[in-house]
Specification:
This protein is an alpha+beta fold. The chain has a single domain (about 30-95, about 130-244), classed as Porin. About 20% of the residues lie in helices and about 55% in strands. It has helices at about 1-25, 95-115, 120-130, and strands at about 30-40, 45-55, 60-75, 75-80, 85-90, 135-145, 155-160, 165-170, 175-190, 190-205, 210-215, 220-230, 230-244. The strands form two sheets. Strands 1, 2, 3, 4, 5, 6, 9, 10 and 13 form a nine-stranded antiparallel β-sheet that branches. A four-stranded antiparallel β-sheet has the order 7-8-11-12, with no helix packed on it. A hairpin with a 5-residue loop joins β11 and β12 (about 220-230). α2 runs antiparallel to α3 (about 120-130). The relative contact order is 0.17.
Length: about 240
């Protein structure tokens, strides 16, 4: 009898612990991202950006995320290193069968009722209904810009043989800080997520100032000067996450 009571006591302790562990599954994730970082200014090209991130989520959907991100060139200035920190909220997860059922119904409905655009609408409806979770995030990214300004190496353009234009980017400071807001769209495959992550970023520390000088061909006389602080950026990333 004493042995049976001991076994029952051990089981009564182990079951809640197992249940708690099972309930906590997939509250964490680690993921890698690759995408494009685009300054929201005409004439300034973007560059690739890449990162690795860790996220933790609570049962109510709230969570936080931290990571490391590297962009080779931002507005012609090399090597930006950032540490994204964000608070997040994500919707609940659906089973694969529920997502597949919704996707099939949505694609058939669109294909039948959208006329000539039915095939395209049906594919879009199928894809969107296969989304497992949608996540919203907002936070800050402290970072460091190790490159130098391009005052000594400006770019020249010639307009129709009459005018010329000289452009370069000034870097007032190396420490950077941006405010970020965006969303994640997740497509789940077992414990992996395929992510699409659009986001907007506002540079609080004014690290990039774009200069434009315009003049007449054959003369060094400048007829127009412009200065544009580059503060707004848009990123679009794709990622692969593992939940645990």
């Amino acid at each position: 009898m004493k042995r049976i009571l001991t076994i029952l006591a051990a089981v009564s302790i182990a079951l809640p612990l197992c249940a708690q562990k099972q309930k906590g599954l997939e509250n964490n994730e680690i993921f890698m991202t690759v995408g494009a970082d685009v300054p929201m200014h005409k004439g300034i090209e973007g560059d690739v950006t890449m990162g690795i991130h860790y996220g933790h989520y609570y049962p109510n959907g709230l969570g936080f995320r931290a990571g490391f991100q590297y962009t080779p060139t931002v507005a012609d200035i090399d090597n930006h290193f950032g540490v994204p920190l964000a608070f997040t909220f994500r919707t609940g997860s659906r089973s694969f069968s529920n997502r597949l059922e919704s996707a099939a119904y949505g694609s058939i409905y669109s294909a039948v009722h959208d006329g000539e655009d039915g095939l395209r609408g049906g594919f879009f409806a199928f894809l969107m209904n296969m989304v497992d979770r949608i996540e919203l995030h907002a936070g800050l990214t402290p970072g460091y810009v190790s490159g130098v300004g391009r005052e000594q190496y400006p770019s020249y353009k010639d307009y129709g043989g009459k005018y010329w234009e000289k452009t370069w980017t000034e870097k007032p400071r190396s420490f950077s800080l941006s405010a970020d807001a965006g969303m994640n769209i997740n497509f789940r495959i077992w414990r992996f997520d395929l992510k699409i992550m659009p986001a907007f970023h506002y540079n609080l520390t004014n690290n990039y100032i774009y200069h434009i000088d315009k003049g007449e061909r054959g003369s060094d006389r400048i007829i127009r000067q412009e200065t544009r602080p580059i503060r707004w950026f848009f990123t679009i990333n794709g990622g692969l996450a593992f939940r645990f």
